[in-house]
């Protein structure tokens, strides 16, 4: 039987979600916990691959077992896992439902702190030393993203993407006190794409480039045309959508 597991994690302690040689990852810790409690080797497939230091408020993965799962499995997992990972629920799904390939959309949020804040240093870009940002210009640039579907300029160089085509459904900035929040939804994201977009948007907001320059950057289809990637700690995966 195939099961989906919904969970969240603080990515500060991990070298990303996906298992990597000689590095601690969320997937490794999750599989170790499942395998220990179920007393059989368990392999999971996640809805995506978050990079080192990136967080997830809502993440899914699937795994398979022939066992009937204990109704207290969620509690047992949360007791076994570190304080950085929290399991919300586990539920049976059709045998062909795939956590990664059947996701219809993903939503990320990115946070920028406009003041020095020791309590958000691991969950936002500490931007207080730099130029003020014009959120109106940044939202003007957001509208340009909807005109395109090839985001090669925001893709990590030498990545193994079969295509750089993505459909963006939502992109907007809002100010929450002394913090900026960027929300972006799409059918799929390229590796490093959100952080590269944020870095470029900050160049717009600081006046380094204009919103219209974003068109040239996208049409160049060249990573070096875009801005530097924003720091990982400000990025959160907040939703993954499925048709169930």
UniProtKB/TrEMBL annotation:
<dbReference type="InterPro" id="IPR020103">
    <property type="entry name" value="PsdUridine_synth_cat_dom_sf"/>
</dbReference>
<feature type="domain" description="Pseudouridine synthase I TruA alpha/beta">
    <location>
        <begin position="149"/>
        <end position="243"/>
    </location>
</feature>
<protein>
    <recommendedName>
        <fullName>tRNA pseudouridine synthase A</fullName>
        <ecNumber>5.4.99.12</ecNumber>
    </recommendedName>
</protein>
<comment type="similarity">
    <text>Belongs to the tRNA pseudouridine synthase TruA family.</text>
</comment>
<dbReference type="Pfam" id="PF01416">
    <property type="entry name" value="PseudoU_synth_1"/>
</dbReference>
<comment type="function">
    <text>Formation of pseudouridine at positions 38, 39 and 40 in the anticodon stem and loop of transfer RNAs.</text>
</comment>
<feature type="domain" description="Pseudouridine synthase I TruA alpha/beta">
    <location>
        <begin position="8"/>
        <end position="102"/>
    </location>
</feature>
<feature type="binding site">
    <location>
        <position position="108"/>
    </location>
    <ligand>
        <name>substrate</name>
    </ligand>
</feature>
<keyword id="KW-0819">tRNA processing</keyword>
<dbReference type="InterPro" id="IPR001406">
    <property type="entry name" value="PsdUridine_synth_TruA"/>
</dbReference>
<dbReference type="InterPro" id="IPR020095">
    <property type="entry name" value="PsdUridine_synth_TruA_C"/>
</dbReference>
<dbReference type="InterPro" id="IPR020097">
    <property type="entry name" value="PsdUridine_synth_TruA_a/b_dom"/>
</dbReference>
<keyword id="KW-0413">Isomerase</keyword>
<dbReference type="InterPro" id="IPR020094">
    <property type="entry name" value="TruA/RsuA/RluB/E/F_N"/>
</dbReference>
<feature type="active site" description="Nucleophile">
    <location>
        <position position="51"/>
    </location>
</feature>
<comment type="subunit">
    <text>Homodimer.</text>
</comment>
